[in-house]
Amino acid sequence: MKKALIHDWFSVYAGAEKCVESFTNIWDEFDVYSLIDFLNDNDREIILKGKKAKTSFIQNLPKAKDKYRKYLPLFPLAIEQFDLSGYDLILSSSHAVAKGVLTHSNQLHISYVHTPIRYAWDLYHQYLKESKLESGIKGYIAKYFLHKIRIWDISTVNRVDYYIANSNYIAKRIKKIYGKESKVIYPPVDVEKFKLCEKKEEFYLTASRMVPYKKIDLIVEAFSKTNKKLVVIGTGPDMEKIKAND
Questions:
Q1: How many domains in the chain?
Q2: pLDDT, tens digit, 9 for 90 and up, residues 94-120
Q3: 189: left (phi over 0), alpha (psi -120 to 50) or beta
Q4: Quick check: helix, strand or coil at residue 13?
Q5: 137 and 201 share a domain?
Q6: Which of 24, 166, 219, 220 could form a disulfide with 245 if both were Cys (CB 3.0 to 4.6 A apart)?
Q7: 28: closest CA among 49, 56, 10?
Q8: Are 47 and 109 members of one domain?
């Protein structure tokens, strides 16, 4: 069986990439595809077992390594340029456009969905507000392209044969937005790395990539008004904003 693995983008080693790592732990013979691949050698060895993804034209656009999200309007076009017609199995790891890859009737396409596109659907208004795109020329342009992405996203629903959700919450969102049932398979946890600790410190823990929709700043702000200890694990563009609430 010839297998292809397609992931939205490889820029950091975060939650979605840990799921991809689990896929390649099971099958390391995947041919890997992604809009971009800027992993360092160490992360590449862990996630992709040393392989480099076959990338789209986004990889070669100016400042794509750090500013690839600026090319969001081009993502649907870019993902459809991958020719996967020679594969028997396509496994997509999707939180944006990976599930929209083109397939034919003799192929099995299974999509592990981390989320439908948040900023195009239920976090649309929050995204516009936090990005200061509620009005003005830039705002109208952003609204237009997000509208187009919603239309495209719905048009790709039947390109997937089986949906897998990473939680019951995401399964509900898949049903709401795509009208599809999904099987819940939770992201992997290596339980062998943890030991039972009966004598514990008293603190709360949050671990996440520090991006606006995760609301880590709100959690930190809430704890700053109490005498309870909060341990925050993660990094991301909201790091300085979150530190300011500490």
A1: 2
A2: 999 999 999 999 999 999 999 999 989
A3: beta
A4: coil
A5: no
A6: 220
A7: 49
A8: yes
